[in-house]
Amino acid sequence: MPQNPAGALNPILKNGLQIEEVFEERGVDKKQGMKKSLGLMKKLLLRDPKKLCDLYPHQLSGGMRQRLIACMSLSFEPKLLIADEPTKGLDPEAKTGAVELFTKIKKDYGKTMLLITHDLDLALEVCDRIAVMYAGEIVELDEASKVLSTPMHPYTKGLIRAQPRNGLVPLIGQSPSRIRLPDGCLFHQRCRYSGIECSRKHPEMKNHKGGWIRCHFQSLQ
Ligand code: SF4
Questions:
Q1: Both 15 and 110 in a single domain?
Q2: Are residues 106 and 156 in the same domain?
Q3: Protein residue whose Cα sits closest to atom 6 of ligand 1
């Protein structure tokens, strides 16, 4: 599922046709495809799907467009559903709707899902596990509730402190350039716990308290 549902949909095709096309691509005949599309739309909490099919993407709200994209993605019956920043640019109401949508997909379809997101609330509500990434590598991996309630890695701690409800404390510095990555720990220039070893040796992922962390000082609390 691409981010920015508005840009991902074809603005000159009616909504119904966009889902139907997926079934057509999979060799399902038009009539059957339309029936399946309507069924999927209903399941994904889109009210009055027949009327919706007759509209164009710009006539839908952000949340509805996202559900339409979800219908298209699920029409392929994927084994793995990857959603890229699914709540980016959505208003608070549509964000709540997105949590409901992904919870439903998880519960009703039993799909393996990979959500790429900065939305920690969405991650907590929907995901079983969270892998926190910094400069292209995983720095912490554990059950979602553990990562968010008792973060271990300094970057994860910084992310949580930067949440508005936690005082909006920004992390110092900026992410390193991908073409000039620093030696040692990729986070050492911004880490308040950094020691000499950190700028020399790149830390490996290590098991700690049942989760995984990439830090020389796993016992940081
Ligand atoms: S290895 Fe060092 S710099 Fe990197 S996160 Fe751990 S303490 Fe901070």
A1: yes
A2: no
A3: 215
